[in-house]
Amino acid sequence: MENMLQVSLNNLKLKTPLMTASGTSGHGNEIDVLENSPEVRSSLGAFITKGVTLKAKEGNPEFRIVETDSGILNAIGLPNEGAEFFVKTELSGLLSFELPVIVNISADSIEEFGVLSSYLCDNDINQIISAIEVNLSCPNIKKGGIAFGTDPAIVERIVNIVKKNVDDRISVITKLTPNITDITIPARAAINGGTDILAMINTLRGTAIDIYTARPLLGNKTGGLSGPAIKPVGLYMVYECFSKISECSSRQIPIIGIGGISRWEDVIEYIMAGASAVGIGTAWFVNPDLFPDIYKGIKEFVKQKGVPISELTGIAHQDG
Ligand SMILES: Cc1cc2nc3c(=O)[nH]c(=O)nc-3n(C[C@H](O)[C@H](O)[C@H](O)COP(=O)(O)O)c2cc1C
């Protein structure tokens, strides 16, 4: 029965299709349930870290999170101690989870993505890192604030430089931004750049105003929307890529579906739309038992269906 939930994303083998979404569990040390609950860990297929940058970053001024009707807006700003601190102090702590570790990275330039990925790979002496997830939603300082992920030529170059700088044993995941009209354009660019896996979506741009001070509530003025409100958008983007990109429908390039998942039924929807695995973030802030709850739900569903979860990928595209 356990095998029914196993999934393979090329070289990345997961015992369940459930993963933490980047930035919503720190580096593992900020979420007690991960350290203290074997049940939570055994329901997960992989752990994804928060964003790591080459140099330490302070992050944005407060408020960094604002609640919305069906989700949250965040403008955290990638606070972290930098890559050196991460590999020397934080990475080894993730070994105790006994899960594949996926490191999410961000950088301010194409070249910096190369330097960062090569640094992480060279200093991963215990071979803890299974995959690097490239966050393309960060602003490109050299181009004056345009997100990298909206320019297909830049997407291709970033993915290519990361791919060249990591060992073959490390999978490259490209995480796409939904702040674009046609998601298949950056998705194809990432495939051309050599990505092994696609992940979608990151947060949708948004803001909130304090009507009593007449000022934006977020310290950064604008932020990214996540949580249940964005599920139809993430689902649509997975559906689009699976239906329009042959490498996705053939599963040569598997998709990790992210965005607004809060129930086991949402996971099944993402898988039927074309995802091979999923990432879950915001809903975990609300329910610490979320992963075991979802695990039980999908396990029961595949048992009733009598097919492994991997066979459900993309079935919403079948004719008839
Ligand atoms: C507080 C917070 C921090 C996040 N930090 C990162 C990050 O460091 N890197 C990244 O690629 N995505 C980051 N994200 C985006 C999530 O990984 C995810 O793509 C998004 O929240 C949608 O999933 P959800 O609706 O399940 O939260 C962050 C999201 C939140 C809410």
Task: Give a summary of the structure in a few sentences.
The protein is an alpha/beta fold and 320 residues long.
How would you describe the overall organization of this protein?
The chain has 320 residues and is α/β, with parallel strands linked by helices. It has a single domain, classed as TIM Barrel (Alpha-Beta Barrel), CATH 3.20.20. 33% of the residues lie in helices and 20% in strands. The protein contains eleven helices and 18 strands. The strands form five sheets. An eight-stranded parallel sheet has the order 3-18-17-12-11-8-7-4. β1 (7-9) and β2 form a beta hairpin. α4 (110-122) runs parallel beside α5 (152-165), α5 packs parallel to α6 and α9 packs across α11 (290-305). The protein starts with 6 loop residues before the first strand and ends in a 15-residue tail after the last helix. The model has no long low-confidence stretch (mean pLDDT 94). Residues 21-24, 50-51, 72, 74, 76, 78, 104, 135, 175, 202-203, 226-227, 230, 258-261, 280-283 line the site of flavin mononucleotide.
